[in-house]
Amino acid sequence: MAEEDGQSYIDYDAFLDPDFSPTAFANSLVIATNNPSDTPIDLSTPLSRVLFDIQEIDTHIHTLTTKSAIPLLTHTKDQADAGQRIVDEVEAQVATLTDGYERLQKEVIQRYEEADQVRVAAERLWETVRIGRSVTRCLTLGRQLETQMTEVGGSTASAAQAKKEDHRAMVRASNTLLSVRHILAASGPDEEGEHLSKIDLIIYLQNSVLTPAETSLRNRAQQIIREFSMSSLAPSSSAPATYAQSEETKSRTTSALLTLQILNPRLLLAALQAYLRTSLTSSMASIARALANLPTLDRTLLEVSARCQNIVALESLLDSIEPPQSQSTNSTGREEEEAGNLLEPLLAALDTSSLPSFFWRSLAEGLAPRIGDLVSKGGVSARALKSQRERVKDSIRECVLRGSQSPGGIRGKAGAWDREAAVMVGSVTGSLSR
Fold first, then answer.
1. Taken in order 185, 187, 188, 194, is the CA torsion positive or negative?
2. Percent of the chain's residues with pLDDT above 70
3. Comparing C-alpha atoms, which of 272, 159, 149 is closest to residue 217?
4. Residue 406, exposed/middle/buried by CB under 10 A (0-12, 13-18, 19+)?
5. Residues 294, 388: contact at Cβ < 8 Å?
6. Confidence of residue 338 (pLDDT cuts 50, 70, 90)
7. FRET pair for 365, CA 20 to 30 Å: which of 167, 223, 287, 393?
């Protein structure tokens, strides 16, 4: 083949050069076969040269293929036979893999799919059982709550029903209600109350049992706190309360306090503050009226002393009651967690160290402007008040000291009340010396 290349006049190296340019080669042919001075350019000669070169190359290719036909065919046949052998081997391996896959699909994949379906069914059944247990527990607690509410009775119960009322059932009902709340509040993934809010029976339970029961407990407890009275000073046509009656009042009030504390500590604080506000408002108005009509002063101050004795009794009762265990373990407020009794949060909210002291100082603060208005208007009332100033001072001082004592059956906090008495006397007589 090298010999043939040497006998040919064609410059194969020029054609095989990577920098070969057909345009430059054609231009060189035209310049080689024409004179630069010729006006008509002869293109037939270079064209014939190119055609002759192509025919020479074609003849050369034909000669080479004719001489090498048998080796080429033999090489092609060898390659084809080798490829066929490879295909046969690959087909055998593919058949083996196909059989293995079919066996794997039959023995593993199909069984896995069946097992996965069983797993999904088991998970759904377990979820159903878990929800059913939660619903059953809520319904059981709801039925228990209904029974306890029957034991509690109502504020409008008859005399025969009132004897059957069990105020301790209020605390039990509150704890039951709190248990249901905890279940319904645990609505996170994998928690006991998950999906319960979507169940119609639970929605009905909330609307027909839980919410009315909570409202009834709250109203009943607030009513008991509003009616709390332990003092025997207030003038009354009935006989003084016996020891048993006093203990029953303490026990009933304790149940009411614990009920509100369990339902919501803020409800308890609001009820106690409302009780104090009511006592202050009533005392302030009655003292202002009595100072304008002095013959009624002694009776009015006796009533005010009775109200303060009730506050002393309430303070002692709150001091003796520890927060329920459910509140100490689930409290969200720092003060509630640290409080050792029900009195401490109230004192912190009122920013005082004693409820009687708060009562007298708040009462004095409210009375001062009213007495000033009474004196500034003048008249018979103002003149009578000024003329009996010493008697009024002694009566008010006695009222404070008497009201700050503990009522029978209750041991109040020991303490001197001279400062509170001086503040009350100053609020009333301060305007009289002007």
1. positive
2. 87
3. 149
4. middle
5. yes
6. low
7. 223
What would the two tokens of residue 122 be? 């088991």
d(CA 434, CA 429): 9
Q: CA–CA separation, 269 vs 254, rounded Å?
A: 14
Residue 336 has pLDDT above 90, yes or no: no
pLDDT at site 52: 86
Least Cα distance to 311 among 388, 402, 230, 254 occurs for 230
131-136 average pLDDT score: 91
Residue 156, pLDDT above cutoff 50:
no
In the numeric block, which tokens belong to residue 302? 């006796």
Question: Cα(first)–Cα(last) distance of the chain, in Å?
Answer: 144
| pLDDT value of position 106 | 81
Nearest to 225 by CA among 196, 205, 261, 254: 254
Task: Report which of residues 138 and 236 the model is more confident about.
Answer: 138
Q: Phi and psi dihedrals of 9, rounded to 5?
A: -85, -5
Give the C-alpha separation, 157 to 164, whole Å: 10
For the record, the structure tokens of 104 come out as 């794997």
